[in-house]
Prior knowledge:
Blueprint: E1 23-30, H1 33-42, E2 50-57, E3 76-82, H2 90-107, E4 113-116, E5 120-123, E6 126-135, E7 141-147, H3 169-182, H4 187-194, E8 201-205, E9 211-219, E10 225-229, E11 242-245, E12 249-253
Parallel strand pairs: 1-2
Antiparallel strand pairs: 2-3, 3-7, 4-5, 5-6, 6-7, 8-9, 8-12, 9-10, 10-11
Helix pairs in contact: 2-3, 2-4
The structure holds biotin.
Biotin binds next to helix 1, strand 3, strand 6 and strand 7.
Amino acid sequence: MSGTDGIWWREPWTAATWPPAWTVHHVAETTSTNVVLADAASRGEVGDRTVLVADHQTAGRGRLDRRWDAPAQANLLASMLFTDVPPDPFELTQRVGLAGLAAARAVRPDRRIELKWPNDLLADGVKLAGVLAQRITSGAVIVGIGMNLRWAPPGAARLFDDAYPAESTATILSTLLGFYDALPADIGSVYRADLATIGQRVRVELPSGEHVVGVAVDVDHDGRLLVDVDRGQVSRESAPERRVFDVGDVVHLRPAEPA
Ligand code: BTN
């Protein structure tokens, strides 16, 4: 999908009833919904709260320059454009994470669905969904979410263990957008209250390859994770005992689990 066949932007997806204010477009296949939506936004072709959802991505992107792969029509692959950006843009990713959490809980109340810093969803302790945000030169923000519905890569979870109708992906997305609209203006306290990471013993894996073990105590006003590092890892010369992370992968450790 490229900008030259822009006609599809003028044909919103009518397969589902979307909450007001959202304009949803659907494509069978694209490279990455985040990239294509960012390009269209840069060209001024689309406005605030445009959503692009794809059945399949050929170059899906994950956090920390990873790939995000899924078979066609298996999972929710969607990106949202926000041109109305709050002073703290990370609040948008927190909102999308919380909306995804609520949507997943609504359809699977029997599963233990949790939010893990920064914006991953876990189902029964295993990764179910991820959120990826990027800012474009205009200042607009694109937030993408990938949620495993019918398929999961090794080591990850999917929402449904039984056959789940392909067209129902639209229902999940519609539910998610509705929950997004219902979130309160002061998102920070809601996010922290729902973030399972706080109070957990965690291993933080950094892009450098370093890892740190300790107890996650809070998320600050910049969306960064505060961790009280285990005493054994802190020498007199090294960083202070409480460390602040703005990027990294977090593993929730069980109390007795070795680091
Ligand atoms: C993560 O690594 O946890 C974030 C994954 C985000 C994947 C979604 S799928 C829809 C959107 N388009 C992309 O290329 N990535 C995001």
